[in-house]
Predict the structure.
Amino acid sequence: MSKKIVVAGAGHGGIAAAALLARKGFDVTLVEQNEEASLGYDWRDCIQLSCFEETGLEPPPQSELEPLRNLSYFNPRKTVCIPPRKECSSVSMMIERKFLVQHLLRQARESGAELRFSCRAKGAITEGTRVTALETDDGVLPCDLLIDAAGIDSPVRKSLPAECGVLREIAPEDTLFTYRALYEDTGESADMPIYSAYFFHCGNKGFNWVFRDGETVDVLVGSFGGITPQIVQTALADFRTDHPYLGERLLRGGAYSKIPLRRTLPQFVCDGYAAIGDSAAMIEPLSGSGMVLSIRAAGYLCDAVEAASTFSRAELWAYEQAYFRRNLHHILHSDMLKDVLMQMGEKNIDAMFEKKVITTKELNGGKQTAADLWHKATGVLTTPSSIPALWPMVRRSRTEPRLAITLPKTYDAHAVAAWQKAYAAF
Ligand SMILES: Cc1cc2nc3c(=O)[nH]c(=O)nc-3n(C[C@H](O)[C@H](O)[C@H](O)COP(=O)(O)OP(=O)(O)OC[C@H]3O[C@@H](n4cnc5c(N)ncnc54)[C@H](O)[C@@H]3O)c2cc1C
Protein backbone atom coordinates (compact mmCIF):
# COMPACT_ATOMS: atom_id res chain seq x y z
CA MET A 1 0.00 0.00 0.00
CA SER A 2 1.39 3.44 -0.88
CA LYS A 3 2.32 5.78 1.95
CA LYS A 4 -0.22 8.45 2.94
CA ILE A 5 0.99 12.05 2.76
CA VAL A 6 -1.15 14.99 3.84
CA VAL A 7 -0.24 18.56 2.88
CA ALA A 8 -1.68 21.32 5.08
CA GLY A 9 -2.16 24.59 3.17
CA ALA A 10 -1.80 25.39 -0.53
CA GLY A 11 1.49 27.25 -0.12
CA HIS A 12 3.72 27.19 -3.20
CA GLY A 13 6.12 24.63 -1.79
CA GLY A 14 3.26 22.47 -0.54
CA ILE A 15 1.52 22.36 -3.91
CA ALA A 16 4.83 21.68 -5.66
CA ALA A 17 5.60 18.86 -3.19
CA ALA A 18 2.09 17.42 -3.66
CA ALA A 19 2.62 17.36 -7.44
CA LEU A 20 6.08 15.76 -7.24
CA LEU A 21 5.13 13.16 -4.63
CA ALA A 22 1.84 12.17 -6.31
CA ARG A 23 3.82 11.75 -9.53
CA LYS A 24 6.05 9.27 -7.67
CA GLY A 25 3.01 7.23 -6.64
CA PHE A 26 2.43 8.47 -3.08
CA ASP A 27 -1.15 8.87 -1.88
CA VAL A 28 -1.31 12.66 -1.43
CA THR A 29 -4.15 14.81 -0.06
CA LEU A 30 -3.81 18.60 0.14
CA VAL A 31 -6.16 20.59 2.34
CA GLU A 32 -6.61 24.34 1.94
CA GLN A 33 -8.81 26.60 4.06
CA ASN A 34 -9.85 28.92 1.22
CA GLU A 35 -11.79 28.35 -1.96
CA GLU A 36 -9.65 27.62 -4.98
CA ALA A 37 -10.68 30.77 -6.86
CA SER A 38 -9.47 33.05 -4.06
CA LEU A 39 -5.92 31.66 -3.90
CA GLY A 40 -2.89 33.80 -4.75
CA TYR A 41 -2.25 37.49 -4.20
CA ASP A 42 -3.83 39.94 -6.62
CA TRP A 43 -0.53 41.25 -8.01
CA ARG A 44 2.65 40.19 -9.78
CA ASP A 45 5.89 39.13 -8.11
CA CYS A 46 9.27 37.97 -9.21
CA ILE A 47 10.42 34.38 -9.57
CA GLN A 48 13.45 32.60 -11.01
CA LEU A 49 12.57 29.91 -13.50
CA SER A 50 15.53 27.73 -12.48
CA CYS A 51 13.41 26.32 -9.63
CA PHE A 52 11.17 24.58 -12.18
CA GLU A 53 14.11 23.09 -14.02
CA GLU A 54 15.69 21.93 -10.75
CA THR A 55 12.54 20.15 -9.56
CA GLY A 56 11.26 18.83 -12.88
CA LEU A 57 8.05 20.85 -12.63
CA GLU A 58 6.64 22.42 -15.78
CA PRO A 59 7.71 26.09 -15.99
CA PRO A 60 5.08 28.77 -16.58
CA PRO A 61 4.67 29.69 -20.27
CA GLN A 62 6.72 32.63 -21.59
CA SER A 63 3.48 34.46 -22.42
CA GLU A 64 2.81 34.82 -18.65
CA LEU A 65 6.25 36.25 -17.82
CA GLU A 66 7.70 39.72 -17.99
CA PRO A 67 11.27 40.82 -17.30
CA LEU A 68 11.91 42.16 -13.82
CA ARG A 69 12.73 45.88 -13.63
CA ASN A 70 15.69 46.65 -11.41
CA LEU A 71 15.19 48.90 -8.41
CA SER A 72 16.69 52.31 -7.61
CA TYR A 73 17.34 52.73 -3.88
CA PHE A 74 16.83 55.88 -1.81
CA ASN A 75 18.24 56.59 1.64
CA PRO A 76 15.76 57.69 4.35
CA ARG A 77 16.16 61.44 3.77
CA LYS A 78 16.20 60.94 0.01
CA THR A 79 19.50 62.73 -0.66
CA VAL A 80 21.04 59.83 -2.60
CA CYS A 81 19.50 57.61 -5.26
CA ILE A 82 21.47 54.48 -6.09
CA PRO A 83 20.53 53.76 -9.70
CA PRO A 84 19.50 50.31 -10.92
CA ARG A 85 21.73 47.93 -12.76
CA LYS A 86 21.80 48.93 -16.43
CA GLU A 87 20.63 45.58 -17.71
CA CYS A 88 17.38 43.97 -16.61
CA SER A 89 17.74 40.75 -14.68
CA SER A 90 17.60 37.82 -17.06
CA VAL A 91 17.01 35.20 -14.38
CA SER A 92 14.13 36.81 -12.46
CA MET A 93 10.76 37.28 -14.11
CA MET A 94 7.50 38.86 -13.01
CA ILE A 95 4.44 36.62 -12.88
CA GLU A 96 0.83 37.01 -11.73
CA ARG A 97 0.55 35.28 -8.35
CA LYS A 98 -2.92 33.90 -9.09
CA PHE A 99 -1.69 32.40 -12.33
CA LEU A 100 1.31 30.79 -10.61
CA VAL A 101 -0.85 29.13 -7.95
CA GLN A 102 -3.20 27.75 -10.63
CA HIS A 103 -0.23 26.57 -12.69
CA LEU A 104 1.08 24.57 -9.70
CA LEU A 105 -2.37 23.29 -8.68
CA ARG A 106 -2.98 21.98 -12.20
CA GLN A 107 0.25 19.95 -12.02
CA ALA A 108 -0.69 18.57 -8.60
CA ARG A 109 -4.15 17.59 -9.86
CA GLU A 110 -2.79 15.98 -13.04
CA SER A 111 -0.29 13.99 -10.95
CA GLY A 112 -3.16 12.47 -8.99
CA ALA A 113 -3.07 14.46 -5.74
CA GLU A 114 -6.45 14.97 -4.07
CA LEU A 115 -7.14 18.66 -3.49
CA ARG A 116 -9.67 19.64 -0.80
CA PHE A 117 -10.61 23.31 -0.60
CA SER A 118 -12.57 25.14 2.11
CA CYS A 119 -11.12 22.69 4.63
CA ARG A 120 -9.26 24.27 7.58
CA ALA A 121 -6.37 22.51 9.27
CA LYS A 122 -6.62 22.82 13.05
CA GLY A 123 -3.38 21.20 14.15
CA ALA A 124 -1.19 18.12 14.18
CA ILE A 125 -2.09 15.02 16.15
CA THR A 126 0.97 13.51 17.77
CA GLU A 127 2.00 10.38 19.64
CA GLY A 128 5.05 11.38 21.66
CA THR A 129 7.23 13.27 19.19
CA ARG A 130 5.73 11.61 16.10
CA VAL A 131 3.07 13.36 14.04
CA THR A 132 0.43 10.81 13.07
CA ALA A 133 -2.46 12.83 11.64
CA LEU A 134 -3.86 16.24 10.74
CA GLU A 135 -6.94 17.46 12.52
CA THR A 136 -9.22 19.48 10.25
CA ASP A 137 -12.69 21.01 10.42
CA ASP A 138 -13.88 18.01 8.40
CA GLY A 139 -12.33 15.39 10.67
CA VAL A 140 -9.00 13.67 11.26
CA LEU A 141 -6.69 12.71 8.38
CA PRO A 142 -4.23 10.01 9.50
CA CYS A 143 -0.92 10.10 7.61
CA ASP A 144 2.60 8.72 7.46
CA LEU A 145 3.95 12.20 6.70
CA LEU A 146 2.40 15.63 7.27
CA ILE A 147 3.78 18.43 5.10
CA ASP A 148 3.12 21.84 6.61
CA ALA A 149 2.69 24.49 3.90
CA ALA A 150 0.25 26.69 5.83
CA GLY A 151 2.39 29.83 5.85
CA ILE A 152 3.94 32.04 8.51
CA ASP A 153 1.11 31.56 11.05
CA SER A 154 0.69 27.84 10.44
CA PRO A 155 -1.55 26.37 13.17
CA VAL A 156 0.11 23.02 12.44
CA ARG A 157 3.61 24.22 13.35
CA LYS A 158 2.19 26.03 16.38
CA SER A 159 0.49 22.84 17.60
CA LEU A 160 3.67 20.72 17.70
CA PRO A 161 4.88 19.71 21.18
CA ALA A 162 8.04 21.57 22.25
CA GLU A 163 9.95 18.24 22.34
CA CYS A 164 9.63 18.06 18.53
CA GLY A 165 12.26 20.82 18.38
CA VAL A 166 10.59 23.00 15.72
CA LEU A 167 10.29 26.71 16.57
CA ARG A 168 6.57 27.38 16.97
CA GLU A 169 6.35 31.18 16.96
CA ILE A 170 7.94 33.60 14.49
CA ALA A 171 8.58 36.79 16.44
CA PRO A 172 6.95 40.08 15.28
CA GLU A 173 10.42 41.70 15.10
CA ASP A 174 11.36 38.99 12.56
CA THR A 175 8.22 39.68 10.57
CA LEU A 176 7.77 42.30 7.87
CA PHE A 177 4.15 43.44 8.00
CA THR A 178 3.15 44.55 4.53
CA TYR A 179 0.52 46.51 2.65
CA ARG A 180 0.49 46.05 -1.11
CA ALA A 181 -1.81 47.78 -3.59
CA LEU A 182 -2.03 48.79 -7.23
CA TYR A 183 -3.40 52.28 -7.83
CA GLU A 184 -4.41 54.06 -10.99
CA ASP A 185 -1.70 55.99 -12.85
CA THR A 186 -2.78 59.63 -13.21
CA GLY A 187 -0.48 60.05 -16.22
CA GLU A 188 1.44 62.94 -14.61
CA SER A 189 5.12 63.06 -15.42
CA ALA A 190 7.88 63.12 -12.82
CA ASP A 191 11.62 62.78 -13.08
CA MET A 192 11.79 59.75 -10.81
CA PRO A 193 13.02 56.19 -11.37
CA ILE A 194 10.10 53.99 -12.37
CA TYR A 195 10.95 51.47 -9.66
CA SER A 196 11.97 53.32 -6.50
CA ALA A 197 12.70 51.59 -3.19
CA TYR A 198 13.15 53.37 0.13
CA PHE A 199 14.76 52.30 3.40
CA PHE A 200 13.17 53.69 6.59
CA HIS A 201 10.74 55.65 4.46
CA CYS A 202 8.96 58.38 6.51
CA GLY A 203 10.89 57.24 9.59
CA ASN A 204 9.34 53.78 9.54
CA LYS A 205 11.63 50.82 10.24
CA GLY A 206 11.23 48.81 7.06
CA PHE A 207 11.25 48.96 3.31
CA ASN A 208 8.79 50.59 0.88
CA TRP A 209 8.58 50.86 -2.90
CA VAL A 210 6.61 52.55 -5.61
CA PHE A 211 6.66 51.00 -9.07
CA ARG A 212 5.14 52.54 -12.20
CA ASP A 213 4.54 49.54 -14.42
CA GLY A 214 2.96 51.22 -17.43
CA GLU A 215 -0.65 50.46 -16.47
CA THR A 216 -0.84 50.85 -12.71
CA VAL A 217 1.31 52.12 -9.85
CA ASP A 218 2.30 49.32 -7.51
CA VAL A 219 2.98 50.30 -3.90
CA LEU A 220 4.50 48.24 -1.12
CA VAL A 221 4.71 49.46 2.47
CA GLY A 222 6.72 47.07 4.66
CA SER A 223 7.19 47.61 8.35
CA PHE A 224 8.96 45.49 10.96
CA GLY A 225 7.06 44.54 14.10
CA GLY A 226 3.65 45.79 12.96
CA ILE A 227 1.77 48.05 10.56
CA THR A 228 -1.12 50.48 10.99
CA PRO A 229 -3.34 52.32 8.48
CA GLN A 230 -1.59 55.51 9.70
CA ILE A 231 1.82 54.17 8.59
CA VAL A 232 0.34 53.28 5.20
CA GLN A 233 -1.37 56.66 4.75
CA THR A 234 1.80 58.57 5.66
CA ALA A 235 3.81 56.57 3.11
CA LEU A 236 1.19 57.02 0.39
CA ALA A 237 1.00 60.79 1.01
CA ASP A 238 4.78 61.12 0.73
CA PHE A 239 4.85 58.97 -2.42
CA ARG A 240 2.16 61.16 -3.99
CA THR A 241 4.37 64.22 -3.47
CA ASP A 242 7.45 62.67 -5.09
CA HIS A 243 5.61 60.44 -7.59
CA PRO A 244 2.57 62.54 -8.62
CA TYR A 245 1.44 59.83 -11.05
CA LEU A 246 0.35 57.73 -8.03
CA GLY A 247 -3.42 58.08 -8.12
CA GLU A 248 -6.01 57.71 -5.37
CA ARG A 249 -8.14 55.01 -7.02
CA LEU A 250 -7.34 51.50 -5.80
CA LEU A 251 -7.41 49.06 -8.72
CA ARG A 252 -6.04 45.80 -7.29
CA GLY A 253 -4.65 44.34 -4.08
CA GLY A 254 -4.98 46.58 -1.06
CA ALA A 255 -4.12 43.65 1.19
CA TYR A 256 -2.22 43.40 4.45
CA SER A 257 0.06 40.36 4.78
CA LYS A 258 3.22 39.20 6.50
CA ILE A 259 6.67 37.94 5.46
CA PRO A 260 8.90 35.96 7.88
CA LEU A 261 12.02 38.07 7.32
CA ARG A 262 14.50 35.92 9.20
CA ARG A 263 16.77 33.10 8.26
CA THR A 264 15.07 29.73 7.77
CA LEU A 265 14.22 27.85 10.97
CA PRO A 266 17.20 25.80 12.25
CA GLN A 267 15.01 22.69 12.38
CA PHE A 268 11.93 22.26 10.22
CA VAL A 269 11.28 18.51 10.44
CA CYS A 270 10.43 16.02 13.15
CA ASP A 271 9.17 12.43 13.08
CA GLY A 272 6.37 12.33 10.51
CA TYR A 273 6.46 16.10 9.85
CA ALA A 274 8.16 18.47 7.41
CA ALA A 275 7.53 22.20 7.04
CA ILE A 276 8.00 23.99 3.72
CA GLY A 277 7.80 27.61 2.53
CA ASP A 278 6.87 30.45 4.87
CA SER A 279 5.92 28.03 7.64
CA ALA A 280 9.65 27.19 7.83
CA ALA A 281 10.69 30.81 7.02
CA MET A 282 12.21 29.76 3.69
CA ILE A 283 12.77 33.37 2.69
CA GLU A 284 15.69 35.46 1.45
CA PRO A 285 15.74 37.82 4.43
CA LEU A 286 16.79 40.94 2.48
CA SER A 287 14.54 40.71 -0.59
CA GLY A 288 11.60 38.90 1.06
CA SER A 289 11.49 36.39 -1.80
CA GLY A 290 10.24 32.99 -0.80
CA MET A 291 8.68 31.34 -3.83
CA VAL A 292 11.90 30.04 -5.36
CA LEU A 293 13.21 28.64 -2.08
CA SER A 294 9.84 26.95 -1.41
CA ILE A 295 9.63 25.35 -4.85
CA ARG A 296 13.25 24.22 -4.73
CA ALA A 297 12.58 22.78 -1.26
CA ALA A 298 9.78 20.65 -2.72
CA GLY A 299 12.41 18.94 -4.88
CA TYR A 300 14.69 18.20 -1.89
CA LEU A 301 11.70 16.98 0.13
CA CYS A 302 10.55 14.67 -2.64
CA ASP A 303 14.03 13.09 -2.88
CA ALA A 304 14.22 12.61 0.90
CA VAL A 305 10.71 11.11 1.06
CA GLU A 306 11.45 8.67 -1.74
CA ALA A 307 14.52 7.40 0.09
CA ALA A 308 12.75 7.18 3.48
CA SER A 309 10.75 4.32 4.96
CA THR A 310 9.37 5.67 8.26
CA PHE A 311 9.76 9.46 7.75
CA SER A 312 11.70 9.73 10.99
CA ARG A 313 13.54 12.91 11.87
CA ALA A 314 16.79 11.11 11.02
CA GLU A 315 15.56 10.20 7.52
CA LEU A 316 14.14 13.68 6.92
CA TRP A 317 17.53 15.23 7.74
CA ALA A 318 18.32 14.56 4.06
CA TYR A 319 15.68 17.21 3.24
CA GLU A 320 17.10 19.80 5.65
CA GLN A 321 20.65 18.96 4.61
CA ALA A 322 19.94 19.43 0.90
CA TYR A 323 18.12 22.71 1.59
CA PHE A 324 20.97 24.17 3.62
CA ARG A 325 23.70 22.80 1.36
CA ARG A 326 22.21 24.58 -1.63
CA ASN A 327 20.96 27.81 -0.01
CA LEU A 328 22.97 28.44 3.17
CA HIS A 329 25.40 31.04 1.84
CA HIS A 330 22.70 33.11 0.19
CA ILE A 331 20.41 33.03 3.23
CA LEU A 332 23.12 33.95 5.74
CA HIS A 333 24.55 36.72 3.59
CA SER A 334 21.14 38.23 3.00
CA ASP A 335 20.21 37.88 6.71
CA MET A 336 23.41 39.65 7.72
CA LEU A 337 22.82 42.62 5.39
CA LYS A 338 19.20 42.93 6.51
CA ASP A 339 20.24 42.98 10.18
CA VAL A 340 22.95 45.58 9.56
CA LEU A 341 20.55 47.89 7.73
CA MET A 342 17.78 47.55 10.28
CA GLN A 343 20.03 47.88 13.33
CA MET A 344 21.88 50.87 11.93
CA GLY A 345 18.87 53.15 12.03
CA GLU A 346 17.96 55.90 9.61
CA LYS A 347 20.66 58.47 10.46
CA ASN A 348 23.45 55.97 9.96
CA ILE A 349 21.93 54.65 6.73
CA ASP A 350 21.83 58.25 5.48
CA ALA A 351 25.54 58.60 6.31
CA MET A 352 26.37 55.25 4.68
CA PHE A 353 24.65 56.26 1.43
CA GLU A 354 26.10 59.79 1.44
CA LYS A 355 29.65 58.64 2.24
CA LYS A 356 29.51 55.86 -0.38
CA VAL A 357 29.80 53.04 2.12
CA ILE A 358 26.58 51.58 0.70
CA THR A 359 26.75 51.74 -3.08
CA THR A 360 25.24 49.97 -6.04
CA LYS A 361 27.82 47.22 -5.51
CA GLU A 362 26.43 46.33 -2.06
CA LEU A 363 22.83 46.39 -3.27
CA ASN A 364 23.19 45.09 -6.82
CA GLY A 365 26.49 43.21 -6.68
CA GLY A 366 29.84 44.07 -8.28
CA LYS A 367 33.57 43.92 -7.64
CA GLN A 368 34.97 46.39 -5.11
CA THR A 369 37.96 48.53 -6.14
CA ALA A 370 40.66 50.02 -3.88
CA ALA A 371 38.87 53.39 -4.16
CA ASP A 372 35.59 51.79 -3.03
CA LEU A 373 37.28 50.30 0.02
CA TRP A 374 38.86 53.66 0.87
CA HIS A 375 35.44 55.34 0.79
CA LYS A 376 34.04 52.62 3.02
CA ALA A 377 36.84 52.79 5.59
CA THR A 378 36.71 56.58 5.86
CA GLY A 379 32.91 56.58 5.79
CA VAL A 380 32.64 54.16 8.68
CA LEU A 381 35.45 55.75 10.73
CA THR A 382 33.83 59.18 10.41
CA THR A 383 30.46 57.71 11.46
CA PRO A 384 31.33 55.98 14.75
CA SER A 385 27.65 55.44 15.62
CA SER A 386 27.44 52.93 12.75
CA ILE A 387 30.13 50.66 14.20
CA PRO A 388 27.98 48.76 16.76
CA ALA A 389 25.70 47.61 13.92
CA LEU A 390 28.59 46.79 11.59
CA TRP A 391 30.84 45.03 14.08
CA PRO A 392 28.78 41.80 14.36
CA MET A 393 29.09 41.51 10.58
CA VAL A 394 32.84 40.92 10.97
CA ARG A 395 32.23 38.07 13.41
CA ARG A 396 29.38 36.64 11.37
CA SER A 397 31.41 36.76 8.15
CA ARG A 398 33.99 34.55 9.86
CA THR A 399 31.35 32.10 11.15
CA GLU A 400 29.59 31.68 7.82
CA PRO A 401 32.18 29.48 6.02
CA ARG A 402 32.46 27.34 9.16
CA LEU A 403 28.70 26.66 9.09
CA ALA A 404 28.97 25.53 5.48
CA ILE A 405 31.87 23.18 6.22
CA THR A 406 30.38 21.67 9.37
CA LEU A 407 26.90 20.93 7.96
CA PRO A 408 26.61 17.17 8.73
CA LYS A 409 26.31 15.06 5.58
CA THR A 410 24.42 12.26 7.31
CA TYR A 411 22.24 12.27 10.40
CA ASP A 412 24.05 12.09 13.68
CA ALA A 413 21.90 13.46 16.51
CA HIS A 414 24.77 15.19 18.35
CA ALA A 415 26.41 16.62 15.24
CA VAL A 416 23.08 17.89 13.87
CA ALA A 417 22.11 19.45 17.23
CA ALA A 418 25.51 21.19 17.47
CA TRP A 419 25.21 22.50 13.93
CA GLN A 420 21.66 23.77 14.47
CA LYS A 421 22.75 25.52 17.66
CA ALA A 422 25.61 27.26 15.82
CA TYR A 423 23.28 28.22 12.95
CA ALA A 424 20.65 29.58 15.37
CA ALA A 425 23.31 31.71 17.08
CA PHE A 426 24.73 33.09 13.79
C1 LIG B 1 3.75 41.85 -0.36
C2 LIG B 1 4.54 40.61 -0.62
C3 LIG B 1 5.42 40.58 -1.69
C4 LIG B 1 6.17 39.43 -1.95
N1 LIG B 1 7.00 39.41 -3.03
C5 LIG B 1 7.64 38.27 -3.35
C6 LIG B 1 8.42 38.16 -4.55
O1 LIG B 1 8.54 39.10 -5.37
N2 LIG B 1 9.03 36.98 -4.81
C7 LIG B 1 8.93 35.92 -3.96
O2 LIG B 1 9.51 34.86 -4.22
N3 LIG B 1 8.22 36.00 -2.82
C8 LIG B 1 7.57 37.13 -2.50
N4 LIG B 1 6.83 37.19 -1.34
C9 LIG B 1 6.88 36.06 -0.39
C10 LIG B 1 6.00 34.94 -0.87
O3 LIG B 1 4.66 35.39 -0.94
C11 LIG B 1 6.07 33.75 0.09
O4 LIG B 1 7.36 33.49 0.50
C12 LIG B 1 5.56 32.55 -0.67
O5 LIG B 1 4.20 32.73 -0.93
C13 LIG B 1 5.78 31.27 0.10
O6 LIG B 1 4.85 31.19 1.10
P1 LIG B 1 3.98 29.89 1.22
O7 LIG B 1 3.55 29.52 -0.14
O8 LIG B 1 4.74 28.95 2.03
O9 LIG B 1 2.79 30.39 2.11
P2 LIG B 1 1.53 31.22 1.76
O10 LIG B 1 1.65 31.92 0.45
O11 LIG B 1 1.25 32.03 2.99
O12 LIG B 1 0.43 30.09 1.62
C14 LIG B 1 -0.08 29.41 2.72
C15 LIG B 1 -1.39 28.75 2.34
O13 LIG B 1 -1.85 28.00 3.44
C16 LIG B 1 -3.21 28.28 3.65
N5 LIG B 1 -3.53 28.07 5.06
C17 LIG B 1 -3.13 28.83 6.12
N6 LIG B 1 -3.66 28.36 7.24
C18 LIG B 1 -4.38 27.27 6.91
C19 LIG B 1 -5.17 26.37 7.66
N7 LIG B 1 -5.33 26.49 8.96
N8 LIG B 1 -5.79 25.35 6.99
C20 LIG B 1 -5.65 25.21 5.65
N9 LIG B 1 -4.94 26.07 4.89
C21 LIG B 1 -4.30 27.08 5.52
C22 LIG B 1 -3.39 29.71 3.21
O14 LIG B 1 -4.75 29.98 2.91
C23 LIG B 1 -2.47 29.75 2.00
O15 LIG B 1 -3.15 29.35 0.84
C24 LIG B 1 6.06 38.31 -1.07
C25 LIG B 1 5.19 38.35 0.02
C26 LIG B 1 4.42 39.48 0.23
C27 LIG B 1 3.47 39.49 1.41
Summary: Residues 8-13, 31-34, 39, 45-47, 120-121, 149-151, 155, 178, 180, 220, 257, 259, 277-279, 283, 288-292, 294 surround flavin-adenine dinucleotide (CB under 6 Å). The CA atoms of residues 19 and 106 lie 9 Å apart. The radius of gyration is 22 Å. The first strand starts at residue 4 and ends at 8.
